[in-house]
């Protein structure tokens, strides 16, 4: 649908700029214009000018004195002038050329067809204007100039009309032409052209507006929606004649209506956070009363103030005086005013930036910081890609769209299974599952085509959430999804600038994504609980990461080096992995795994016949497709892992494979290089055939082959090579795998250099935010350091084995320089003082800490592939017949250190969070946190306790739990005590165990005691608020303590057996007799308690590994 609008301030011809910064300032000053033309910019070839919201067209040429002169045209993208059937052109004619003849003028204007607007510096003297007018009398051309001078030479006080503007006769009647009375620091005056014309505007793919604003009254929204749900909500669900689509449409309509009531009535009212209004002069207005109009200050110039306006006004007054008198004194006065303006604006900008930096605190929004810093710079580079409006980019995206959505991609749906599936997946969703999803929404995520975002959903009242849950269950049971859930908005993010590759990002309905998350939680548990995925797949799984792949590969290389062997490795690249998944192959795989019909129906409806809306530049098309998995979908990573789960079985012989989603590495070393490469070729061929059978292909160009060997040249003499799809892959001198640059001899020089380059930009950001005597809050700078520098130094740091002294110094200098900037210290400050003040350990201690944490996590998975690998490496190291040519390895040293504690770490073949039935994971036990707040330490705690919990103490069996630690002891204790003192259980655990774990162990021990006690109602009192909150939290994540999940599982079993358990939090040391007894028993258990029957979590070992860091600091 086309719209129409009025185009005002259509064109401005800017004066020549002496440098890039001045040009930027003039382009920025002309706000609310649709086209900005500038000639004689005298930019250097390497200078780039980008203007936010504008498409910049530049034409360089060699001017006088061999200098490069550029013509510049900036066109507004929000109001695209190229939709107007008008040609606008900027020209520059060198002054040393002879005057044009009449025939030359005729030839010049004959090249323009239709409506046109031509302006530029023609360098014509005044006596040539009349011949020019005579030459165009018979043409459809009008001169827009009104004899106002456009050029002013200070030294001679001479003015002339060197800048001319022409238009065709029909367009001339719609144009107003005015010369600005200020030179803006140049010798050419800006020309303002206003064309009042109604033009058609097409819908553009620009930033989409939210349905709400900062002034939305969410209280009104919740109350009005609650009233609507109470009036018609239940009636909609009870009406048997209404289908799912009708109910869903009614629900979304209610959200839209209630949201309209909550929006502010006057959207134009200025809030406290909005910028101050500024008056700008309108040069096209002839009336003195309306010569100034109110505009909002441009966000690109945050430092401009009224003082800046006064400085510019003073320069303008001096210019006017000089034009009138022409005396030498007024000329010198004008020059002084120009210098005063230049210095004054520079100082104001510097002072405003200093104030901005000093205003930053540790809770400042990072997005606000980056935008503000960019706005202070003399560049308007935005997140918009500079190639976004390039025709080559549009053609590349069109080709990518044709490959993503081919006509043959549509296929028929597959019949759902009747038996042989797990029924627990088809159970109705419960409120705990929905709350777990709604409480962890990312409110800034973009909405789909319906514009209902997570901010709106998070503000739904309880009645609306209950209605939404019932709607989800009906959709799930009927195996039909609303039509809006099959509609996606796709935009493209630049992936490879050189190859013009883009990543398609799909925006789906947020209501659909919530249900997708509900099903993803169940399917994720099902896949892990049934141990369906191969051990080699580490992508997007709980308690697995990229470090697992890197550590395995690194350890295998060390084993090969220890045995003086070469290890050939192939690093595979799958072409558009997610985009080429075929649902007609995926669905049968899910059926074979025993996935329930409702889940399969949801996945089938979400992937078959998707309506994809692609919009970019002049691309605005809708496609129907059933090919591929949507990018950024919650289910896509899990479904892809299931889709390629059989790749591991295709490796022949002793070849090993590691995977992180679509990043794959295959390797093996037996000592016979020729045999190893043959096996690697066979495995590569089998994997390629398996991928081809499911619609995926390997890229021969991006697949790399690396031959790891201490002596790389000796292996190259044998000319090793791999074969893939008829192509030959030869060994590479370096290969990048999951962010690390591997070299054949593990020298790490290329990776350290790459890390150095990546950290330079964050260091510059820190430098611009601080100074010797002023700057941002050090806490904020430390946060930026942690996010941009420390994270890069930490990633894979313990994999970097055998760094040279110079490489370690290079990485240390990055840390020292960043912390020196953060703290505002001098370059001569000792490094140990810098680390102590910043409370940061040196890199080698930090690497050891991270490595110990990783090995501790590895031990929580009994079948982790790296455990036998490190065992083999340890045996080789302890073998006296082997020559040590590898040296020490941090990962091996940590493995040996942690192995002594491995017996105390809870270890299972599955992730610990998925080691229980799904019903136990979503179970929420009965908890009470409110009554504990009523206690006051100044009154008798026992009497108040008896008054508050009189009912629980009279009708249930009460137990009290507590945990205790002593830093001077090697043990810690926890206890369980009954109210009458007849039951006292004392246990002790390792000394480094956290208080949270001890309290959870005590509660779990109390639950185990309840299993042996007769009764129906039980109450457990604990003074650990964090444990009670964790029990009440329905969120399921990989970091959830297995003790919390064990307590939920046992409590759910007790409830099925008729035993109701309630958990109540009470404050500690308030004189409550039962709590004091439990506290005494826990302290006694440190010395005399029985060994704990429970293992500890791998996260508890973090306290032990942090001790060396604390000792250093």
TrEMBL record:
Query: Record's Gene Ontology CC terms?
Result: DNA polymerase complex
List residues traversing the bilayer. Answer: none
**InterPro entries under this entry?**
DNA/RNA_pol_sf (IPR043502), Endo/exonu/phosph_ase_sf (IPR036691), RdDP_mobile_element (IPR052560), RNaseH-like_sf (IPR012337), RNaseH_domain (IPR002156), RNaseH_sf (IPR036397), RT_dom (IPR000477)
Organism equals Lasius niger
GO molecular function list: nucleic acid binding; RNA-DNA hybrid ribonuclease activity
What is the protein name given in its UniProt record?
A: Pol-like protein
Q: Which residues form the RNase H type-1 domain?
A: 953-1087
Q: Which Gene3D superfamilies match?
A: Endonuclease/exonuclease/phosphatase, Ribonuclease H-like superfamily/Ribonuclease H
> Start and end of every Reverse transcriptase domain?
474-742
Q: Name one GO biological process term.
A: DNA biosynthetic process
Query: What's a Pfam family in this record?
Result: RVT_1
């Amino acid at each position: 649908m086309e719209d129409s609008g009025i185009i005002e301030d259509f064109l401005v011809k800017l004066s020549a700029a002496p440098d890039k910064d001045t040009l930027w300032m003039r382009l920025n000053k002309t706000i609310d214009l649709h086209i900005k033309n500038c000639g004689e910019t005298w930019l250097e070839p390497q200078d780039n000018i980008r203007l936010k919201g504008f498409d910049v067209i530049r034409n360089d040429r060699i001017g006088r004195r061999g200098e490069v002169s550029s013509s510049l045209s900036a066109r507004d993208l929000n109001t695209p002038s190229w939709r107007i059937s008008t040609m606008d052109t900027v020209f520059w004619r060198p002054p040393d050329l002879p005057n044009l003849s009449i025939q030359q003028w005729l030839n010049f204007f004959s090249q323009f067809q239709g409506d046109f607007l031509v302006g530029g510096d023609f360098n014509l003297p005044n006596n040539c204007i009349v011949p020019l007018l005579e030459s165009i009398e018979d043409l459809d051309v009008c001169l827009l100039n009104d004899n106002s001078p456009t050029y002013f030479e200070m030294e001679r006080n001479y003015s002339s009309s060197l800048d001319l503007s022409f238009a065709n006769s029909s367009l001339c009647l719609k144009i107003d032409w005015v010369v600005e009375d200020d030179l803006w620091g140049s010798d050419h005056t800006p020309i303002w052209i206003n064309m009042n014309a109604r033009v058609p505007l097409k819908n553009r793919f620009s930033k989409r507006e939210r349905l709400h604003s900062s002034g939305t009254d969410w209280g009104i929204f919740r109350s009005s929606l609650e009233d609507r749900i109470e009036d018609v909500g239940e009636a909609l669900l009870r009406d048997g004649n209404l289908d799912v689509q009708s109910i869903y449409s009614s629900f979304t309509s209610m959200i839209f209506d209630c949201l309209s009531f909550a929006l502010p009535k006057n959207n134009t009212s200025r809030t406290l956070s909005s910028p101050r209004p500024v008056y700008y002069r309108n040069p096209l207005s002839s009336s003195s009363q309306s010569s100034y109009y109110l505009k909002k200050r441009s966000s690109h110039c945050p430092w401009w103030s009224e003082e800046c306006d006064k400085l510019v006004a003073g320069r303008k007054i001096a210019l006017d005086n000089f034009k009138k008198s022409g005396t030498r004194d007024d000329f010198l006065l004008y020059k002084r005013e120009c210098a005063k303006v230049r210095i004054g604006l520079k100082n104001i900008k510097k002072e405003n930036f200093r104030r901005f930096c000093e205003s930053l605190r540790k809770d400042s929004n990072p997005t606000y910081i980056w935008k503000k810093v960019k706005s202070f710079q003399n560049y308007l580079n935005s997140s918009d890609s500079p190639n976004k409006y390039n025709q080559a980019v549009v053609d590349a995206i069109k080709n990518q769209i044709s490959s993503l959505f081919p006509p043959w991609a549509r296929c028929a749906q597959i019949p759902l299974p009747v038996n042989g599936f797990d029924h627990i997946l088809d159970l109705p969703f419960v409120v705990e599952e929905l709350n777990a999803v709604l409480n962890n929404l990312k409110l800034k995520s973009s909405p789909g085509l319906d514009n209902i975002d997570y901010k709106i959903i998070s503000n739904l009242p309880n009645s609306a959430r209950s209605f939404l849950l019932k709607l989800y269950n009906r959709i799930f049971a009927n195996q039909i999804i609303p039509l809006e859930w099959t509609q996606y908005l796709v935009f493209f993010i630049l992936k490879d600038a050189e190859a013009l590759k883009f990543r398609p990002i799909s925006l789906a309905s947020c209501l659909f994504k919530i249900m997708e998350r509900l099903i993803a939680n169940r399917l994720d548990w099902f896949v892990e609980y049934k141990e369906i995925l191969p051990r080699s797949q580490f992508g997007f799984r709980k308690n697995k990461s990229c470090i697992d792949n890197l550590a395995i590969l690194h350890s295998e290389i060390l084993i090969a080096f220890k045995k003086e062997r070469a290890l050939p490795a192939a690093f595979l690249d799958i072409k558009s992995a997610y985009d080429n998944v075929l649902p007609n192959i995926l669905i049968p795989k899910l059926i074979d795994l025993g996935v329930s019909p409702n889940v399969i129906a949801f996945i089938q409806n979400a992937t078959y016949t998707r309506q994809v809306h692609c919009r970019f530049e002049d691309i605005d098309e809708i496609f129907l497709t059933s090919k591929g998995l949507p990018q950024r979908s919650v289910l896509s990573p899990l479904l892809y892992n299931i889709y390629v789960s059989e790749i591991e079985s295709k490796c022949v012989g002793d070849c090993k494979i590691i995977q992180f989603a679509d990043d794959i590495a295959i390797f093996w070393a037996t000592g016979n290089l020729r045999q190893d490469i043959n096996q690697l070729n066979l495995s590569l061929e089998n994997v390629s055939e398996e991928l081809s059978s499911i619609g995926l292909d390997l890229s021969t160009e991006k697949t790399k082959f690396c031959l790891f060997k201490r002596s790389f040249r000796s292996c190259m003499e044998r000319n090793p090579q791999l074969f893939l799809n008829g192509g030959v892959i030869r060994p590479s001198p370096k290969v990048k795998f999951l962010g690390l640059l591997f070299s054949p001899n593990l020298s790490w020089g290329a990776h350290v250099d790459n890390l150095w380059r990546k950290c330079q930009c964050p260091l510059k950001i820190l430098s611009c935010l601080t100074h010797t005597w002023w700057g941002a809050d050090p806490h904020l700078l430390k946060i930026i350091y942690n996010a941009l520098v420390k994270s890069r130094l930490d990633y894979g740091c313990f994999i970097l084995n055998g760094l040279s002294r110079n490489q370690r110094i290079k990485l240390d200098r990055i840390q020292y320089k960043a912390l020196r900037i953060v703290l505002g210290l001098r370059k001569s400050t000792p490094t140990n003082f810098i680390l102590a003040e910043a409370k940061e350990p040196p890199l080698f201690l930090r690497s050891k800490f991270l490595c110990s944490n990783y090995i501790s996590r590895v031990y929580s998975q009994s079948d982790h592939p790296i455990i036998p690998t490190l065992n083999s490496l340890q045996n080789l190291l302890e073998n006296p017949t082997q020559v040590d040519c590898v040296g020490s390895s941090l990962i091996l040293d940590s493995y040996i250190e942690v192995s002594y504690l491995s017996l105390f770490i809870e270890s299972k073949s599955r992730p610990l969070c998925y080691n229980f039935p799904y019903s136990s994971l979503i179970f929420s036990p009965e908890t009470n946190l409110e009554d504990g707040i009523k206690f006051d330490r100044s009154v008798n705690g026992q009497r108040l306790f008896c008054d508050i919990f009189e009912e629980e103490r009279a009708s249930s069996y009460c137990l009290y739990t507590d945990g205790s630690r002593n830093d001077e002891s090697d043990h810690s204790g926890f206890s369980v005590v009954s109210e009458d003192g007849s039951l006292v259980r004392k246990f002790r655990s390792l000394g480094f165990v956290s208080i949270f774990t001890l309290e959870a162990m005590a509660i779990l021990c109390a639950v185990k005691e309840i299993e042996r006690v007769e009764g129906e109602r039980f109450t457990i009192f604990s003074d650990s608020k964090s444990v009670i909150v964790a029990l009440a939290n329905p969120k399921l994540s990989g970091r959830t303590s297995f003790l919390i999940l064990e307590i939920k599982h046992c409590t759910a079993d007790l409830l099925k057996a008729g035993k109701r358990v309630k958990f109540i939090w009470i404050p500690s040391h308030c004189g409550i007799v039962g709590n004091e007894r439990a506290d005494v028993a826990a302290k006694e258990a440190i010395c005399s308690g029985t060994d704990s029957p429970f293992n500890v979590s791998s996260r508890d070992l973090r306290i032990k590994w942090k001790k060396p860091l604390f000792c250093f600091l």
